[in-house]
Design a protein that fits this description.
The protein is built from 16 helices and 13 strands. It is 50% helix and 11% strand. With 474 residues, it is an alpha/beta fold. It has helices at 17-24, 45-58, 85-95, 105-108, 114-127, 145-161, 198-209, 220-226, 232-248, 256-268, 277-297, 331-352, 360-376, 396-423, 425-438, 443-460, and strands at 27-29, 65-66, 69-70, 75-78, 100-104, 131-135, 166-171, 189-192, 271-273, 303-308, 310-311, 316-320, 440-442. The protein has three domains: 17-192, Rossmann fold, CATH 3.40.50.300; 198-268, Orthogonal Bundle (Helicase, Ruva Protein, domain 3), CATH 1.10.8.60; 271-459, Peptidase M41 (Methane Monooxygenase Hydroxylase, Chain G, domain 1, Up-down Bundle), CATH 1.20.58.760. Helix 1 (17-24) packs across helix 5 and helix 7 packs across helix 9.
Length: 474
């Protein structure tokens, strides 16, 4: 269990409580200083309900046994950083009317000796019955196996030393601890947190904006859609960054554009410099090709924003809206997604007679989708309902046939993508040239161009069977 870095001949160092506080900087709150309640937590409704029931049981005053063992739960909280694991633990402490000690495991990595953990035991003992949280134990996963195992054992030793206190650990990755950590003498209750849904994201945005100035017409539901996959912590951090950016731009209030641009800078890097006219037009037609292909290949296709800008990690971005209510994908959906991915390459080929290296990521995505179509979901009618992966169980002959079917699907859908873009070439040109001029187009502007072109094409379309002219009377 000893730290492998410590020499066996070195003098044992004892940590005082003050030294532990200085090294680990734990957050310690008494009940009267803790203003977190379950009722104030946004999202994670099922988790809050579960913990509310547990608190009610624990505070009932009656002895509760499960399989002959007194009920005294300990918790492993799983979920991406920022989803509310720490906030929920602080609320549990408040509802139990207990002090809480929260220790950041990233700081333990710097000194993970037995002596440090003996110091932690002194700290917990000085507080008395309390809630103890070890935050983000995945930091131990990158250490030497023997060192990480020692730390997990020492956490269990601290837990065992205080049977009346309540222990929580949090982790952003599920496979960061040995199996016995969730065992008979370890932690017994696992709680999994999901990223907030659209309604919870909207509520979180409104809560965080209470402390920031913003324009009256700020489209908060649209921001909530843009923040798909973001945790509450991510949203709070990004809004703060956006406010700093607003001050840099001498804007008194947050606007949708400032928040959106801040998000893009975080995800794809800041804008570096202007592109040459040639690069600008290649990129504009590439991105417009994605939009046109997706619009006519996917029935529910919606795009939030299209941009051409030289950023650290991209030259252009097409940002489709995600339908969070959709839980499965059809054959037609997959083909449509492949066509959408191939739209940029096909647009370049149609307009310029060549294509650029910017198609690499698109081809990676399209090929992965085609592989799923043929090899994972059994959607290719000629290949049949067969699941194929790289496992040795499958014959080389079967894998070769699957590879050919994936290639055939890609070639077939590339032709279809080209047909779509040729049929709507005027719209492609209109969208691309507008994008090259403005460099950024948002949803309403894109829809206006697409719907306007659709109406215009209906007006000018010739009827398939025009009526015959009446003959002049003789």
């Amino acid at each position: 269990m000893a730290n492998s870095r410590n020499s066996s001949t070195s003098k044992k160092k004892e940590y005082t409580i003050d030294q532990v506080k200085k090294k680990l900087r734990p957050k310690i709150l008494m009940p009267e200083d803790n203003d977190n309640f379950f009722k104030n937590i946004i999202g994670n409704k099922d988790i809050v309900e579960q913990l509310t029931e547990i608190v009610a049981l624990l505070n009932s005053g009656s002895e509760i046994e499960i399989l002959g063992v007194p009920y005294h739960p300990s918790f492993v909280m799983l979920g991406m950083q920022g989803v509310g694991k720490t906030l929920t633990t602080f609320a549990f402490a408040k509802e139990m009317n207990l002090p809480i000690i929260a220790i950041n495991c990233e700081r333990i990595v710097q000194d993970y000796s037995e002596e440090m953990f003996e110091g932690i035991i002194k700290l917990v003992r000085s507080v008395g019955k309390c809630v103890v949280m070890f935050k983000e134990i995945q930091f131990f996963a990158n250490m030497k196996t023997e060192d990480s195992i020692s730390i997990y054992n020492m956490i269990l030793d601290v837990k065992e030393a205080f049977p009346e206190s309540f222990f929580f650990v949090s982790a952003s990755v599920t496979t960061t601890y040995p199996a016995y950590f969730m065992g008979e003498e370890g932690f017994d209750t696992m709680i999994s947190f999901n990223p907030p849904g659209p309604e919870d994201r909207e509520a979180l945005i409104r809560k965080f904006l209470e402390e920031l100035p913003y324009v009256e017409n700020l489209d908060i539901p649209k921001l909530a859609r843009d923040f798909f996959g973001f945790s509450g912590g991510d949203i709070k951090c990004l809004l703060k960054k956006a406010f700093i950016q607003a001050m840099v731009e001498e804007q008194e209030e947050l606007t949708y554009e400032i928040i959106n641009q801040t998000m893009y800078s975080d995800m794809f890097g800041k804008k570096i410099s202007k592109m040459s006219e040639k690069e600008l037009h290649f990129t504009a037609y590439h991105e417009a090709g994605h939009v046109i292909a997706g619009y006519y290949a996917l029935p529910d296709y919606k795009v939030s924003k299209v941009e051409v800008a030289y950023r650290s990690y991209s030259l252009g971005i097409t940002d489709p809206e995600v339908d969070e209510k959709k839980l499965s994908t059809t054959k037609e959906d997959l083909k449509g997604e492949i066509i959408h991915s191939l739209g940029g390459k096909c647009a370049e080929q149609i307009i310029f007679g060549t294509s650029t290296s910017g198609v690499m990521q698109d081809l990676q995505q399209a090929t992965a989708l085609a592989d799923g179509y043929v090899c994972k979901f059994g959607m290719d009618e000629t290949f049949g309902p067969v699941y194929v992966d790289d496992d040795e169980y499958f014959s080389d002959a079967l894998k070769s046939i699957a590879d050919i079917k994936v290639q055939e699907l890609m070639i077939s859908l590339e032709r279809k993508t080209t047909d779509i873009l040729r049929e709507h070439k005027d719209t492609l040109i209109n969208l691309a040239e507008t994008l090259a001029k403005k460099e950024t187009l948002y949803k309403d502007e894109i829809i206006q161009i697409l719907e306007g072109s659709k109406k215009e094409s209906k007006k000018t379309a010739k009827p398939k069977n025009p009526p015959k002219k009446a003959k002049n009377p003789s």
